[in-house]
Amino acid sequence: MKDVSTLAKIVSVTNQLILQSRQRQRRLLLELLLEEEEVTNEGTRLDCPTIPRIRKSVRQIFRELGPNYFRRSFRMRWSTFKQLYFTLKPFLVQVIQPAPLKKRKRSPNGPIALPVRLAVCLRFFAGGDAYDIAVMFGISHSIVFTSVDYVIDAINLCDNDSMKIEFPSDHNKQLEIANALKKRSDADFDCCAGLIDGIVIWTHKPSEEDCIETGLEEVFMWKKHKFGLNCQAVCDDKKRFMDISILFGASASDHLAFELSDLRQKLSTPGFLHEMLCLFGDNAYVNTRYMATPYANIGEDMDKDAYNFYHSQLRILIECAFGLLVQRWGFLRKKAPQQFTMRKIQAAVYSLCKLHNYLINVNDEVPIENSQEDQLNLTVSGAVPLASRVRHSHRVTGLPLQLLDAGDHFDDDPTRQYRNAHRRSGNVVLPRESMFNQICESNLRRPVYNINRRNGQRRR
Fold it and tell me: Is the pLDDT assigned to residue 38 strictly greater than 50?
């Protein structure tokens, strides 16, 4: 009996050891499966396995592309990119908040570095396709748009002087701009504090909720039969933007968009603008004490024709500024992605204008041709072509003509409410009259070469 009892105890202990061993093996197997799940199940959606990717740094991309092709792809030099990154780094850190705690404790493909975030955004705005960008850097398609959001916010938060967009309120700075523009004027016009015009930002059809949220007008269609936003901009002698205003859809006139802008309110405030200065605009605006426009319907009046010529000689700078902006950032030549709301489009345009100013200030303003991949992507996506326009003694190239001159009308002011409000009273001499008198006293005329070229174009 003792032998049977002893044997039973041995069998019981053996079974317990076997059970414990199996449980231990099961726990080990579960731990291995959990570890594998943590490695392969990293993603924004639950139960969605992550695709293994190899991250690439911006430096690796630079070594593979070389300095010339890097500049074509990212629209700036390698040295400029590094300088821009260190300028934006504090704001990128501020914008990119730590991700919320998830089941996973680590990222299987590795973290996405801040320089990569910036490079992704630059490639996207240069005209690159989001899928190509994802493959280039070893990231997902959604991360491309997330990075673009982060960088837009960081740029708009940046208060660096080299990026600032602000019309100067200091009279001395206003006079400095006027003196710089005087050197560009063959008629020695010394009263120009900036050049103003409008450009269309091509968008998708906005929803009614989107219009209400952003406070924009519901009518977005413009005469080119596309939806867009009316962007009013003022630039200085170096083609840097001093003011940006996006308050209306593209169907609105430049006149109305300017009249209801913050800059117009400032200019109409006594003492803000130097009494001898004004802006130069085309016939889409109204001639006032702070805005000089060309003469309309001049007929055979040679003096007014000469004034219009020399006035346009400076005004073309704002068109050139638009040309530089659009040549560098192909994003503005095509319709904004469906993922972009109207508010996001406004923020994106403002950030691109700040980058435009920054690149001019660091002497990286010369636009270069797009890479072949970007040019193909822009063509396939129906981007607006860049054309040339003859101005004065030279041909201005790289202008998005389909996006210009859309607001040259007064259809939204049929009762002349805004135009009649600017009728002058008393013996006030407006800047246009002073410049016209200067033309008459100097006996200036439109140059012969310009007359011959204009007549040649009319004969064609």
Answer: no
**Any idea what DSSP says for residue 244?**
E
Helix orientation angle between 114-126 and 78-95, rounded to the nearest 10 degrees: 110
Both tokens assigned to 392: 């004065």
Q: Give me the chain's average pLDDT, please.
A: 84
Cα 73 to the center of its chain, rounded Å: 17
**DSSP structure class, residue 5:** H
- Which residue in the block uniquely carries the two structure tokens 């404790």? 105
Per-residue b/e over 428-445, b at no fewer than 16 CB within 10 Å? eebbbeebbebbeeeebe
Tokens of 375: 């040019």
- pLDDT, tens digit, for every residue of 254-287? 998 999 999 999 999 999 999 999 999 999 999 9
**In the block, residue with structure tokens 């630059």:** 122
Residue 435 or 216, more confident: 435
**pLDDT tens digits for 323-365?**
999 999 999 999 999 889 999 999 999 999 999 999 999 999 7
Phi and psi at residue 383, in whole multiples of 5°?
Answer: -65, 150
**Rounded to whole angstroms, how far apart are CA atoms 357 and 244?**
12
Q: Which residue has the tokens 């300095």?
A: 67
pTM of the model: 0.84
Q: Which residue is associated with the tokens 């991949």?
A: 373
Residue 69 backbone phi and psi in degrees, to 5 = -70, -30
Neighbours of 455 (CB within 10 A): 9
Is there a contact between 296 and 441 (Cβ–Cβ < 8 Å)? no
Sign of torsion over alpha carbons 219, 222, 226, 232:
negative
C-alpha span between 140 and 134 (Å, rounded): 5
Pair of tokens at residue 262: 């913050």
Q: 37: buried, middle or exposed (CB in 10 Å: 19+, 13-18, 0-12)?
A: middle
Judge contact between 292 and 273, C-beta under 8 A. no
Structure tokens at 367: 């636009």
* Residue 70 contacts residue 78 (beta carbons within 8 Å): yes
The answer to whether residues 292 and 313 touch, using CB atoms and an 8 Å cutoff, is no
Inter-CA distances, 300 with 144, 391, 433, 438, 448, Å: 57, 21, 18, 19, 16
H/E run at residue 394:
strand 394-399
